[in-house]
Amino acid sequence: MEETGFDMPLRPDEPAWKSKPVAQRRREFALGVASVAVLGAATVGALVAGSGPSTTALAANAIESAPTPSTTAAFEFKLTGIDEESIDVNGEPERADGGCTIGALSLRLGATGEGVECLQDALRVEGHFNGTIDGNFEDATLRAAMDFQTTQDLFVDGVVGRETALALAIWPDEESLVTRTPPPASGAKDLWGVELSPVASAGDDAPPLPDNSGSGRRVVYDRAGQRVWAVRDDGVIIRSWLVSGSTYSNELPGSHEVYSRSDMSTAWNGKAWLPQMIRWLKTERGAIGFHAIPLHVEDNSPYQGSDELGTRLSGGCQRQHNLDAAFMWEFATLGTPVIVT
Fold first, then answer.
1. Displacement of CA 292 from its chain's centroid (Å)
2. 3 state SS of 306
3. Helix runs in 203-321, H state only
4. DSSP symbol at 163
5. Cα separation of the two ends of the chain
6. How far apart (Å, rounded) are the C-alpha atoms in residues 41 and 316?
7. What's the Cα-to-Cα distance from 70 to each of 65, 82, 327, rounded to whole Å?
8. What is the CB neighbour count within 10 angstroms for residue 326?
9. 225-253: per-residue pLDDT in tens?
10. 314, 246 in Cβ contact below 8 A?
């Protein structure tokens, strides 16, 4: 039975973990039962197997298969994981109103610095923290974060990521973090000779790779920048493009690899086609991967436009322009490393 994609939330306004009572969620965390990688999005029940129309018929903007290199060079890969809480977002993150932010993709027990001070002050304002604002994420800050998550009916794990930081109004202005490039000239191509999408670039025109993003032939996905790079074995960037990633904190950082592919898949709820699905993260709740813009099953209309790429809109997967999805389908074969920063 084919794995369904984890793109659509359970309901537009409610992640699946909210189906558990707050007390139960808190108890699970206290007992150490809750998974470190809990997904703040849809619960996937029975996997939905189904056949849909072909990718060619649905993806009107898709191109012919990208040319495959004549040889596949061996790659060197040394990255074993990434310490998520230590990854600063690009540049100096700012809120739209100029206030402080957590300054990282997430903060958790053991974190230090100005971002923690910002968190402690925000928790103090909300009436949950009465300790010293010292920039050290220790037990008192953890308890305060969990208390705040409980009152807001958020997932109670003490990790301050996007959802908790948004509720505290200390999350950076997301648009300021997105790595955008000028639209390429009409008909411009990448280093494989494949047409570029309006949100893609290649070679020297591509943004530099994020720090600590591995080596060798690989795919790199930067969550803060909402951007993907396809890299040759010699480190040259073949192509780079914007995506629409997850609204939640379920895209786990670190090293992964492509483990499954489907020319056409379905969302867990059966309401969306997911063309050219490339899965890199298998979870208890479903599969997360790269795919083309999802299409409504009822009328084959797209869920979003190209101008929305770079905005977090999915429940877990990374949505791509159809031209970029067609390239990725040829590049990201089974076993291809996927580095998530």
1. 15
2. helix
3. none
4. H
5. 31
6. 7
7. 14, 33, 16
8. 25
9. 999 999 999 999 999 999 999 988 789 99
10. yes
